[in-house]
Amino acid sequence: MILLASASPRRRELLNQLGVPHRAVPVDIDETPLPGEPVEALVCRLALDKARALAAKTVAELPVLGADTLISLDGRPLGKPADRADGMAMLAQLSGREHEVLSAVALVVGGREALRLNRNRVRFRELEPAECAAYWTTGEPADKAGAYAIQGRAAMFVSRLEGSYTGVMGLPLFETAELLREAGVALLELGDS
Ligand SMILES: Cc1cn([C@H]2C[C@H](O)[C@@H](COP(=O)(O)OP(=O)(O)OP(=O)(O)O)O2)c(=O)[nH]c1=O
């Protein structure tokens, strides 16, 4: 059994895909970037802060996983849109070009901490303002970094992905499995046959 420091249903689903028994507990951390903080450093810090925040609250020595996802566009972070105007502006910026999706995953066990950064390149086709407006009304963009969900209707915007689909969705499973394996969490129990 591990703890997942997250309120995200996507992250729970993705962890289920690995078959890892877990309990998800939301944590509230300050996600404000530090002055001049590179996106890579920010996403790693936030993933670690989430795992640390939950580890500090729990008495059981269970492994605690935290994750964070940010878009990096010209070196600037795009997180979740504040409102419709912000979301529309994000989609307009992503239209017809390539951006990076960075997902960090952190594991805290006892006093030990480990971290992995997953990087993905995503290309969007040109988007019409009318389809961005229509996409906003689906409700999908509101709680997603960069105002889109690759696992949802924004799949029709993505002409190319170089990286990992689970990383773009918010929990890079290859890196997560590596962290768990290194911490001694059994991922595949082979029974007698
Ligand atoms: C780019 C992209 C992001 N996302 C989601 C993943 C994350 O849930 C969200 C980015 O916000 P985060 O701040 O990383 O996470 P969160 O607030 O949703 O959840 P937590 O409680 O763990 O902090 O965007 C998708 O679901 N699909 C996508 O294609």
UniProtKB/TrEMBL annotation:
GO CC, alphabetical: cytoplasm
Record field: transmembrane: none
Catalytic residue list: D68
Site (Important for substrate specificity): R10, T69, Q151
SUPFAM superfamilies: ITPase-like (SSF52972)
Matches recorded under HAMAP family: Maf (MF_00528)
Matches recorded under InterPro entries: ITPase-like_fam (IPR029001), Maf-like (IPR003697)
GO biological process: nucleotide metabolic process
Reactions it catalyzes: UTP + H2O = UMP + diphosphate + H(+); dTTP + H2O = dTMP + diphosphate + H(+)
PANTHER family hit by this protein: BIFUNCTIONAL DTTP/UTP PYROPHOSPHATASE/METHYLTRANSFERASE PROTEIN-RELATED, BIFUNCTIONAL DTTP_UTP PYROPHOSPHATASE_METHYLTRANSFERASE PROTEIN-RELATED
EC code: 3.6.1.9
UniProt keyword list: Cytoplasm, Hydrolase, Nucleotide metabolism
Gene Ontology terms, MF aspect: dTTP diphosphatase activity; UTP diphosphatase activity
Homology family: Belongs to the Maf family. YhdE subfamily.
Name assigned to this protein: dTTP/UTP pyrophosphatase
Cited NCBIfam families: maf
Highest taxon, organism lineage: Bacteria
Species this chain originates from: Thiohalobacter thiocyanaticus
Function of the protein: Nucleoside triphosphate pyrophosphatase that hydrolyzes dTTP and UTP. May have a dual role in cell division arrest and in preventing the incorporation of modified nucleotides into cellular nucleic acids.
Organism taxonomic ancestry: Bacteria, Pseudomonadati, Pseudomonadota, Gammaproteobacteria, Thiohalobacterales
Cofactor: a divalent metal cation
Localization in the cell: Cytoplasm
